Amino acid sequence: NAGVTQTPKFQVLKTGQSMTLQCAQDMNHEYMSWYRQDPGMGLRLIHYSVGAGITDQGEVPNGYNVSRSTTEDFPLRLLSAAPSQTSVYFCASSYAGNQPQHFGDGTRLSIL
Amino acid sequence: EDQVTQSPEALRLQEGESSSLNCSYTVSGLRGLFWYRQDPGKGPEFLFTLYSAGEEKEKERLKATLTKKESFLHITAPKPEDSATYLCAGAARNSGNTPLVFGKGTRLSVIA
Fold first, then answer.
1. φ and ψ at residue A51, rounded to 5 degrees
2. Are B18 and B42 in contact (CB under 8 A)?
3. Is the Cβ–Cβ distance between A46 and A55 less than 8 Å?
């Protein structure tokens, strides 16, 4: 099993560009979430989903969109990239909210 | 507001020097306390889940314990390969499927 797979691993964007960070899991988990990790700030929740067709906002949702059309995939879209979105992005999945989350290895995103 | 606070922010140990990392939480109706290990450039890796006060879990040189207000990760006779950032997270009972609340982590360095 691959677990949680994130692509790309690295990306450099210019301010104003848009892009989609991909996340796929092969564990049949209903629960998926996106975090950003910044120095000194820890992991902050962006958006999460409790199943296909259901998404909700986390702590820092502004500037990001998500959708969940299948159980396996949970893409994160940056609509108009800003330097403040430079960060490491992690996707995670679990069976339920109080179960251990399995993380991908992250996407390192730089916005110039 | 649910919060998880970890201390110290950083800890430097000599190989073989046992110590403990602290995770204090103010999470309403805690329904799970999670410990993760994160290596540089990688996503967090699940270590333990604790569900009730008095519970203990062990894995190699690590032992996690839980009280009504805090959790400890005890490291016995650490080795250089135990160097990593250790993250603590809590799941609140009354928050439905809201994902975990993470602390900012303790960065552990074990010197040979």
1. 165, 170
2. no
3. no
For residue B31, CA distances in Å to A4, B61, B74 come to 24, 25, 22
Q: What is the pLDDT of residue A2?
A: 78
Place of tokens 């998500």: A66
On the CB side of B42, CA atoms within 13 Å amount to 12
CB B77 within 8 A of CB B61: yes
B49·A58 Cβ contact <8 A:
no
Angstrom distance (rounded) from CA B54 to CA B43: 29
| Yes or no, beta carbons of B49 and A100 under 8 Å apart | yes
| Model confidence pLDDT, tens digit, residues B35-78 | 999 999 999 999 999 989 999 999 999 999 999 899 999 999 99
Any idea what DSSP says for residue A16? T
Closest CA to A29 of A53, A47, A49: A49
